[in-house]
């Protein structure tokens, strides 16, 4: 017979092992990033105000606030985060003792044929199997109540590693939510400035249409006087129809963009949040301030998510290694089982307490393959992290280069627009003095409108490039 003191000493030794945690510990990887971005100067890494406020547009600010509160994609991502945190808390509960209670009643019947010698005394009958009073079956009530407790001792840190992996999974979901929020913010800003640009292009198209109508009227008048041919009139009319077609295309694009923006801010497509009559104001295009490259690993949601995924994969290795070692479960039971409620009491108690030690002996290679799989997943997560960092580096470089290029183009477009405005002013003065006909003035005004359109497009492109830069920098 095994001495209880020997068993107790063995259990104490196993409990001391409860502080052990097998498997590799996670260390945050070092992001391979440059010391500074090319062509940039040192700047604050992350301003206090939301990034889209740098455009200085109150309507955009309102739309962004609406989207953050009601966008459905963002709300779905937030629910995923809630689920990940619940899963983390549920995994932590596995490390705690489990206690349960149950009450039961059953009506039973046991046949006594062949077992009379054993069951008869228990049933209050004669122990003589030949006694005719012994029934062929016996029906009885069984009342049961018990309280049970169990505790899986985390000898090798399996549960701790699982909690660690679940915590990293929650961090990954949090980073994914931040990424979804940044994507929604960027989509709202991009769609808003596209809509603003289209509305302003329509205003310029209406001006061009008015100039075309005036050209057609002049050509028709000249033809009446014999100073122009039908070819001139038909050419002017063809240009007028082309401008009308362009207006129809613009109207369709404006409506489509407005509907897209409506859905982004969480409204139904038939309730647009925009008014095309709002006065247009050019966006403020502040100089880019990318900060230092090392900030990127703390700001970009995809890098944070990749790091969390690597953390979870590393912790999973430890959980898989713990499966190779014995597991210990302590359990206890206290219950009362009676055939008659009148017998319910302390004398009817049933108790049990003790450990259960499970030792893996043969699993057909399953444990080793699971460990190999977890190690492969950890290597893949490490490679994914490296790729994510390099892609982020490239995206920031590309966005910075695009912003600088578009800024130079916008300067050239601004110079050309100012020059065309001055030209129109000079020609208009000559026209008013009667030195020239209306034709040169209309041509100059058309050139001025084209220059304004070019400047508008470069400005909108600059705003979109800055949005892309903010996304590349993580917001």
Walk me through this protein's architecture:
This protein has 10 helices and 4 strands. It has a 4-stranded antiparallel beta sheet. It has 2 domains: 51-93 and 157-324 and 371-473, Outer membrane efflux proteins (OEP) (Up-down Bundle); 96-113 and 138-153 and 327-359, Outer membrane efflux proteins (OEP), CATH 2.20.200. It has helices at residues 4-16, 58-70, 72-93, 116-122, 158-224, 230-264, 296-299, 301-322, 366-433, 438-472; strands at 98-111, 137-153, 327-338, 349-358. The radius of gyration is 40 Å and the shape is elongated. It is an alpha+beta fold and 475 residues long. The model is unreliable at 41-45 (pLDDT under 50).
- Sheet with most strands: 4 strands, antiparallel
Q: C-alpha Rg, in Å?
A: 40 Å
Question: Given the structure, what is the number of helices?
Answer: 10
Strand order of the largest sheet: 1-2-3-4
Q: What fraction strand? A: 5-15%
**How many strand segments?**
4
Q: Whole-number average pLDDT?
A: 83
Q: What is the level 1 CATH name of the largest domain?
A: Mainly Alpha
State the shape.
Answer: elongated
Our measurement of the CA-to-CA distance between the termini, rounded to an integer number of angstroms, reads 70 Å
Subcellular location: Cell membrane
Organism: Sphingomonas sanguinis
InterPro entries: MdtP/NodT-like, OMP_efflux
Keywords: Lipoprotein, Membrane, Palmitate, Transmembrane, Transmembrane beta strand
Question: What is this entry, summarized?
Answer:
The chain has helices spanning about 5-15, 60-70, 70-95, 115-120, 160-225, 230-265, 295-300, 300-320, 365-435, 440-470, and strands at about 100-110, 135-155, 325-340, 350-360.
């Amino acid at each position: 017979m095994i001495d209880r003191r020997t068993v107790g000493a063995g259990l104490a030794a196993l409990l001391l092992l409860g502080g052990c945690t097998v498997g590799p510990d996670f260390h945050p990887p070092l992001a391979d990033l440059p010391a500074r971005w090319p062509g940039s100067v040192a700047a604050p890494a992350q301003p206090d105000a939301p990034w889209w406020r740098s455009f200085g547009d109150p309507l955009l600010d309102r739309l962004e606030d609406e989207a953050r509160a009601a966008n459905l994609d963002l709300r779905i991502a937030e629910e995923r985060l809630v689920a990940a945190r619940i899963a983390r808390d549920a995994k932590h509960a596995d490390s705690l003792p489990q206690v349960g209670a149950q009450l039961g009643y059953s009506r039973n019947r046991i046949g006594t044929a062949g077992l009379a010698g054993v069951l008869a005394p228990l049933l209050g009958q004669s122990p003589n199997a030949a006694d005719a009073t012994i029934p062929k079956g016996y029906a009885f009530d069984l009342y049961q109540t018990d309280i049970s407790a169990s505790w899986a001792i985390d000898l090798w840190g399996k549960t701790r590693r699982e909690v660690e992996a679940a915590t990293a999974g929650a961090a990954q979901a949090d980073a994914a939510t931040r990424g979804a929020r940044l994507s929604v913010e960027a989509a709202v800003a991009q769609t808003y400035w596209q809509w603003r640009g289209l509305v302003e292009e329509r205003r310029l198209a209406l001006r061009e249409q008015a100039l075309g109508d005036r050209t057609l009227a002049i050509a028709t008048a000249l033809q009446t006087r014999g100073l122009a041919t039908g070819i001139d009139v038909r050419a002017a009319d063809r240009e007028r129809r082309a401008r009308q077609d362009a207006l129809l295309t613009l109207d369709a694009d404006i409506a489509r963009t407005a509907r897209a923006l409506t859905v982004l801010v969480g409204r139904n497509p038939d309730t647009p949040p925009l008014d095309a009559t709002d006065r247009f104001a050019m966006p403020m295009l502040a100089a880019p301030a990318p900060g230092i490259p090392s900030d990127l690993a703390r700001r970009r949601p995809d890098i944070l998510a990749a790091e969390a995924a690597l953390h979870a994969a590393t912790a999973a290795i430890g959980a898989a290694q713990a499966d190779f070692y014995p597991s210990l479960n302590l359990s206890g039971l206290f219950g009362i089982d009676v055939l008659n409620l009148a017998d319910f009491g302390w004398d009817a108690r049933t108790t049990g307490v003790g450990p259960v030690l499970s030792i893996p002996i043969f699993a057909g290679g399953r444990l080793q393959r699971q460990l190999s799989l977890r190690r492969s997943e950890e290597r893949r997560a490490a490679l994914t992290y490296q790729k994510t960092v390099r892609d982020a580096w490239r995206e920031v470089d590309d966005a910075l280069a695009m912003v600088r290029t578009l800024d130079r183009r916008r300067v050239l477009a601004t110079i050309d627009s100012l020059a065309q405005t001055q030209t129109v002013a000079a020609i208009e003065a000559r026209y008013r003095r009667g030195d020239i006909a209306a034709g040169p003035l209309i041509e100059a005004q058309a050139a001025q409108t084209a220059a304004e359109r070019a400047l508008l497009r470069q400005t909108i492109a600059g705003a979109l490039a800055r949005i892309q830069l903010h996304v590349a920098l993580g917001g």
